[in-house]
Every structure is written in C-alpha cells, then in structure tokens.
Amino acid sequence: MPVDIMDHNALERFVAAASERFGTIDALINNAHTITLPAPFLEKTIEDLDVEMRSSVYAYWHLMKLCFPHMRDHEGAGASVINFASEAAVTGDALYAPYAASKEAVRGLSRVVAREWGQYNIRVNTICPNGMTDNISGGIGWMEDATREHIERAFVNNPFRRVGDPYEDVAPVVVFLASDDSRWITGQNIHADGGGLINA
Fold first, then answer.
1. C or N: which end of the chain has fewer Cβ atoms within 10 Å?
2. Closest Cα partner for 38 from 99, 85, 81, 118?
3. How large is the angle between the packed helices 57-71 and 8-22, nearest 10 degrees?
4. Radius of gyration in angstroms for the set of CA atoms belonging to the chain, rounded to a whole number
C-alpha cells in the first residue's frame, strides 16, 4: 500500500487498513526516510532538516502512536517496534547533519518509549544497519566524485571489507527483533553493520 509517511492522514489510513486486513498488528518496522543531498553543515538549510525530521522521527512518532492500540497487551512475547537509526549519526559522519540529527532523535525517542511500553508487553528497539540498497547505489552515481567516494568508503569500513547486503545481512536481524525470540530485548540499539562500529 503506497503511503506518504509525511502525511498524517495517509498514516492513519495505512494503520487502519493493516489492522483491518490482519486483525492485529504484531510488529511495526519504521525504516522509511528521505535523505537530503550530503553537504557540509554550513551549506545545509533548515528545510533540509525539516524534510529529514518529518520523514523519520515525526513519522515514527505518529506510527507508534497509531499502532499502539493494536499492539498493546498481546499475550506471550507481545509486540515489537523496530525503528531504523544510523551509525552515521552515532559517529557524527561528516556531510550528514540533518540525517544525524533526525536519526539520533529516533534513538532517544525509542529509549523513552521502550521504558514506557514494557508494561503493555511491547518492546522497542533500534537498528543501525549497513547495506547498499538499490536507492543508494542508484543515487550516488551522479554525485560529485569526492562525495561519492566518501559514501562508498563508508560502506566498506568494516572488518569484512565489503558492502553489506540489505536482504542477506540486515533483514534477518530485523526478523529476529520482530520475532518471539527477541522477547527479552527492549530499549537496545543493534548494529547490523558488519562490525563497522565496534566498542564496549
């Protein structure tokens, strides 16, 4: 179902259709995001920030609230919210000020909601993935050489020295977080990035 995640009315219709179709909502995976063109902070505009905030943290905020009545108090392992964050925000990657700001806001929001919604048997986690999607590979070809090379280096900056595959490397982690097997995990940030970020 095509949905403009920056349109609250569209989100309401989407959640209503999903709950009607399936009778409940067991998992919410917030992974959509509009990324503005990479550029130094001094060149970015408040409009860039607005687009990135509205397409991520604001949309995730709305969707969590809209899905809550359909997710609360499920028996057994309960329900799961998975919000996509980014290693670029954790490390403060150059050229991505609006992206980093919005993705760190997602992590902060998710930690709060995890604490508040455990009582309703809903777990909330974030994931920082590293995988070259078709959108990314198709979008960097026309960028300036320096910007394109910066992005390409970021995707292989891991111990495996290869680009992650979103389907083979990242999707199974999302499935795990959505499944009953993750019943005792909430408020956590999972790096599915091939070790791109390793710390204590």
1. C
2. 99
3. 30
4. 17
Give CA–CA dist 92/185, Å, rounded: 26
pLDDT over threshold 80, residue 142: no
Nearest of 87, 68, 88 to residue 78 by alpha carbon:
68
Is residue 99 part of the annotated active site? The answer reads yes
Q: Using one digit for the tens of pLDDT, what is the confidence trace for 95-126? A: 999 999 999 999 999 999 999 999 999 999 99
Amino acid present at 71:
M
Structural domain spans, the chain: 24-192
Amino acid letter for position 83:
N
Closest CA to 67 of 16, 103, 131: 16
The 3-state secondary structure of the chain reads CCCCCCCHHHHHHHHHHHHHHHCCCCEEEECCCCCCCCCCHHHCCHHHHHHHHHHCHHHHHHHHHHHHHHHCCCCCCCEEEEEECCHHHHHCCCCCHHHHHHHHHHHHHHHHHHHHHHHHCEEEEEEEECCCCHHHHHHCCCCCHHHHHHHHHHHCCCCCCCCCCHHHHHHHHHHHHHCHHHCCCCCCEEEECCCCCCCC
Q: 24-192 maps to which CATH number?
A: 3.40.50.720
Catalytic residue among 96, 99, 120, 167: 99
Residue with tokens 């550029």: 39
- Distance CA(6)–CA(191), nearest Å, equals 26
